[in-house]
Structures are given as C-alpha cells and as structure tokens.
C-alpha cells in the first residue's frame, strides 16, 4: 500500500480527485434502527461507493456496528431489532420481502471482530460457501475456488500444504485472513468488516490492512474501526457517527485534516471517545 509518509494517509489521490465518479453501490436513506424502545440509529443517509473503502468511526456505542449490520440484514437475527427507512444494493431494496437473505449475505459478506473459523479444516472453511451456493460443479472447480480465495486473502502460501488441518489451528491473523478467504469464496460484491483487526497484533494488523487495500480493486468495502489511524490508512471515505447520528461523511483526508463538524474535530483530536 502506498502511504504518504508525512500524513500517514493511504495514497488516495486518484480516488479523492474523482470520488464522485465512484458509483454508489449501497445507499441508506433515512435509516432508523430500534432495539425494542431504544433508538440506536437516527435518520442516517449514507452512500457506500463502489471499489472504495468506507470507514465508519465514532465513539463506543454510537451505532457503527448497528449500521453496518443493516447493510446485509444481520440485524434480522437480533430479537427486538427493527429497521426503518431504505437500504439499497445496486438500487434494489435489500429489505424487500422477496429478497433471499442467504443470497443477500453472499453478495454482501461479513468479517467479524473476532476471527470465527468453523471447527473444520482450512479447506472446508473456504469451500463450504461455494458448495452450498452451487458455485462449483465438481471437486476440481471447488479446489480452484479454494485456492483463488486463499490467494486473494494472501494466505495460500502459508496454508497450501496443510489444507486439511483445522482452521482453528492457525494464528489469529491467519484465522482472520481465512475468514476473509471464506467471505470472498462466494464472490461477494461488498465486504463488511466489523473491527477486523481488534483481536490482532500489530504485525497481523498491518498484513490485514494491506490486504484490505488490495481487496478494494475488486470489492466494495465498509469497515468499522475504533482506530483513527486505521481509518486514515485504509479508507478513502470516512463516516463519523455520534449518538446514533451520522455527523458527517467526506473523503478521508478531508475528514482528518479539515472536518466540517466540531464533533468530528473533537473526536479525532481525542477530546471525547
Ligand atoms: N443487541 C442489542 N440489544 C440492545 N441494544 C443494543 C444491541 N446492540 C447494540 N445495542 C445498543 O445500540 C447502541 C449502538 O451500539 P453499537 O454496538 O452499534 O455501537 P458501536 O458504535 O458499534 O459501539 P462499539 O464501538 O462499542 O462496538 C448502543 O447503545 C448499544 O448499547
């Protein structure tokens, strides 16, 4: 990844200059989320643009993860959680009752905070999704998908001789890359990452951050992070949340050097959070 050594920002010059040219992949309009009576997201409008990394930042409890989970309807799995407003993927409403949620989650994959490989072999962790989605016609094709996904996640060289060993036997950083391989094995269009590096050491974090930068060539990414340095390093756009509201969204460099809102300024300079 190219980094501007003075500022520490990802080299996003092309992305920033033409950021309005990146088509909108997912769009949230007037999104509200309630857990029972409690409102966790308040009237959020947020575009996630194609082949960019959008970082969701803000103090603990501000609703970043809740918003992320709306994008592939993971909140459906939480009892008492209710989402209103509209979220679209390629302009199609993801909350339309006719949407097949399993299919949606293949198109909009997710990587969680804690690496969570299945208690199965490395091979099975990656091949499970393509198998159930019928993406391979035979073993040879499945082998190809597994290899391509592990290569895509930067893990192939480390695991190619131990594909039948348990995924849980890998290091934390390798397990997280295995989860990324599992996500990309079903050819998603969008990958949601909820603090994917928070359980990793600095070296594993750097490897995953580099991987995220490569993945944006092929995928649209939204990442929740507590680390402003990470947001600056990996994202092209940053959305700042506070108390369930979207405070502002802008090109990452602008957000970190010249934010419009005082709340963003206060957060990024460590005055609260
Ligand atoms: N399953 C749940 N049931 C009830 N309330 C919840 C649930 N999940 C989150 N909340 C509440 O919704 C609000 C937003 O939480 P959320 O986890 O989305 O914030 P966050 O910004 O991701 O926080 P953190 O950075 O600490 O992970 C918080 O007040 C939280 O307590």
Automatic annotation (TrEMBL):
Superkingdom of the source species: Bacteria
Family matches, as Pfam families: ABC_tran
Principal subcellular localization: membrane
Topology versus the membrane: Peripheral membrane protein
Entry keyword annotation includes S-adenosyl-L-methionine: no
GO BP annotations, alphabetical order: phosphate ion transmembrane transport
Domain ABC transporter: 26-268
GO molecular function: ATP binding; ATP hydrolysis activity; phosphate transmembrane transporter activity
Keywords: ATP-binding, Cell membrane, Membrane, Nucleotide-binding, Phosphate transport, Translocase, Transport
Signal peptide (UniProt feature, chain positions): none
PROSITE patterns: ABC_TRANSPORTER_1, ABC_TRANSPORTER_2
Gene3D superfamilies for the chain: P-loop containing nucleotide triphosphate hydrolases (3.40.50.300)
Keyword GTP-binding: no
Localization terms from the record: Cell inner membrane
GO cellular component, one term: plasma membrane
Family per similarity comment: Belongs to the ABC transporter superfamily.
PANTHER family for the chain: ABC TRANSPORTER I FAMILY MEMBER 17
Role of this protein: Part of the ABC transporter complex PstSACB involved in phosphate import. Responsible for energy coupling to the transport system.
Name of the protein in question: Phosphate ABC transporter ATP-binding protein
Source organism of the structure: Roseitalea porphyridii
Lineage: Bacteria, Pseudomonadati, Pseudomonadota, Alphaproteobacteria, Hyphomicrobiales
């Amino acid at each position: 990844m190219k980094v501007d050594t003075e500022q520490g920002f990802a080299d996003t010059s092309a992305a920033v200059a033409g950021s309005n040219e990146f088509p909108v992949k997912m769009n949230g309009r007037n999104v509200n989320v309630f857990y029972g009576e409690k409102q966790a997201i308040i009237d959020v409008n947020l575009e996630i643009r194609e082949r960019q990394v959008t970082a969701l930042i803000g103090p603990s409890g501000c609703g970043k993860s809740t918003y992320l989970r709306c994008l592939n309807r993971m909140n459906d799995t939480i009892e008492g959680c209710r989402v209103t407003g509209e979220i679209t993927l390629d302009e199609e409403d993801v909350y339309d009752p006719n949407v097949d949620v399993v299919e949606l989650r293949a198109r909009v994959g997710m990587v969680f905070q804690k690496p969570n490989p299945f208690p199965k072999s490395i091979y099975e962790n990656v091949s499970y999704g393509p198998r159930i989605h019928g993406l391979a016609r035979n073993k040879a094709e499945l082998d190809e998908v597994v290899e391509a996904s592990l290569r895509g996640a930067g893990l192939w060289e480390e695991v190619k001789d131990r594909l039948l060993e348990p995924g849980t036997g890998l290091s934390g950083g390798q397990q997280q890359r295995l989860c990324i391989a599992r996500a990309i094995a079903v050819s998603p269009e969008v990958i949601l990452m909820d603090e994917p590096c928070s359980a990793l050491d600095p070296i594993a974090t750097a490897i995953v951050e580099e991987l995220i930068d490569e993945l944006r060539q092929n995928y649209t990414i939204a990442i929740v992070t507590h680390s402003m340095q990470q947001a600056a390093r990996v994202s092209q756009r940053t959305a700042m949340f506070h108390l369930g509201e979207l405070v502002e969204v802008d090109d990452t460099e602008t957000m970190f050097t010249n934010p419009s809102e005082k709340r963003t300024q206060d957060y990024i300079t460590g005055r609260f959070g």
